[in-house]
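Quality-control log, excerpt.
Job 1 of 2 completed; input and output follow.
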Amino acid sequence: MKALIRGMRGEFLKMRHTFLPLLHIGVPVSGCAVFLLYYRFSDWDEMNRISGYTQVIGVALPFLVSIVCAGNIRLEEQNHFQVLLGGWKAKWKGLTVKYLVLAGMGLLTITGALALFGAGSWLLLPAFGEGKSFAAGMYLPLVAALFLGSLPLYLEHLFLNLAFSGTVSQCVGVAQFLLSALFLTGLGEGRWRFFPCTWSARGAMLALSGIYQENPGDVYFAELQQTVFICLLLLAFICVIIGLWYHYFEGRQCND
């Protein structure tokens, strides 16, 4: 455990002088500011404001994760993966530490984005006389849906950056971005659970539907249970496949 904590601290130190910390701060602040400014002069109701904001976060996550993972792996490319592959007695710990740090930073970013939006909505939007029925605690299911949906993305893009290059990862991130947006329509009904890049956006929609229904009913909980089961099964499968691949990973040429 101490080794993992030291490794996580090392990851933070490596990223300290890169664009990654600024990205995790600047994106939620600027994105929240743009949406609040737009909603300040629009007549959207409360549910549609929150739904639109969370869906945009969910759709953007695949591309943002690809950028974050590419930036982090470039630090390893500078020493030809010697620290990542040779700095741990157990090889898997290096990838695990990297995954936990990046996912943890993602959780803080998502939480900050929704917290800023909630506070900004409360302070700025009441000027239109709209009642505030969306309590602060109701943002927690949205944070959980967005964050849990992003977990396979970090695994996928760490794999793509390690096995291929940052360019490949970012191209896949763009494709996932488009697919996630497309699956917010009726095309995604019944299919989105099998595409991890859509979990954050569609999961936020599912969480919102439960929040705004006083009595969600058996149909909602059956859908939620089925969704959780399929997503956990696919996540476990992704972990096993990438874990087996990483066991035999010995580095690659760093000529991206």
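Job 2 of 2 completed; input and output follow.
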Amino acid sequence: MNDFLTNLNDILWSMPLVILILGAGLYFSVRMVFPQFRYLKEMIRIMGQGEDSAKGLSPLRAFVFTAARTVGVGNIAGMATAIYFGGPGAVFWFWVLALIGSAVALIEAVLSQTYRRTMHGEYRGGPAYYMEYGIKYKKLGRLMASVFAVFTILCFIFLAPTTQSYNITQGVASAFHLPVLAVGIVFTVFLAFVLLGGLKRMGDVAQRISPVMALLYLVMALIIILMNLQKLPGIIALIFTSAFGTDQVFSAIAGSAVTWGIKRGVFANEVGVGSSAVTAAVGEVSHPAKQGLSNALSVFIGTFFVCTTSAIMMLITGCYNVSGGSGEMLYEGLPGVAYGNGFVSEAIDTVVPGLGAPFVAVAILCFASVVLLAYYLYGESSLLYLFPKSRNLPWILKICFLAVVFLGCVLSADMVWTLGDIGHGIIAWINVIALLILGNQGIRIFKDYDRQKKEGVKEPEFDPDALGLVNVSETWKRSNRKHSS
């Protein structure tokens, strides 16, 4: 079974998917004239607007929920994994994905806002919704939407949660010398309590714990880097030479650097997967492009504030290993230490001995808890797409999700990463193809916002009729518009 899953993962994450994601990001960036750079100031301004509504969340809460998802296990243990298999050069390709792929995140959010629906009193949306209601050829749209919804449930309810819960329980149990089983039980009960509170409670938990922990983590990483500042120019040079195969030690794995940089980038920042479009749908904004810009900002936050500092912290202290792919080590700074959280813990211990393990354990607990809440929201939104009138199925989904979270505590590290990658790979293929089909619509909607801003309109309004759009969300009809931004 392990061999089958590994082979499937290798097929899904071969170079064609890498080219597809990067190509889509470059295409959207050029068509929209690189809004991820032009609108950085606007992205930040949007965060201070609006309030929660009965159906959705304020721009700030929606952003925190989305950004908190990108500041998770993938940005800490994931970066260690990328360096282990792809070498320091993987960091460069991670940057490329963020800079170009943020345009993909923008388009996803724009389309999700445009075609979202209200179900059981709350906004629900995401790729399945914009595939069905946005694609001109209805049979194709419904087919793609249904397949995507099924695989989203499979990925985010039955596969990907194991990665988060494994890292939470193993980290906490190891750092504080507690039984893994006990940690797993307590954490699962806590997660159940939050899920039962619905969208508002999930958003509240995300807003309370993720920003504080992210700031503490960033400060710790910066301290480590500043203590080794004289080595920083050499580390930056190493990242670039490794990425392009000119470094003597890591030249043999230059191809792996590309693949692992993109793979871990997608896992950490959701670029191309479409999952962040689900949280984007709950935002209360006056124009879909506002939520699109927020999603683009979340990619930058996750990449350059957490992933990059994590990677440089490991590289600058020499606390990492790099596999040659055939059992040999190209670099072994931590003999006997498995790839993952241990690399980051050891890096912190070089400056503050003994603090690494407990600090990383608490950080992972905070980050991954919010990620798991987002995972459930992704799965539930897809379930409600397939069965919009059902009120009992979400309860069954909660039980299944919590069972999988608990199961993740006892799986092996290789297995949990493989399962998560397979799930992300499948839905990334479907979603990016759909985005290319719908790309012109998303670009037109963004250009409408862009035009209004250039004309001096401070808060652009969205009028789908003026753009000739049909089947859009009822929330954009003038008689139903009740937003606060």
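Post-run check on job 2. Residues 413-454 form the longest helix (42 residues).
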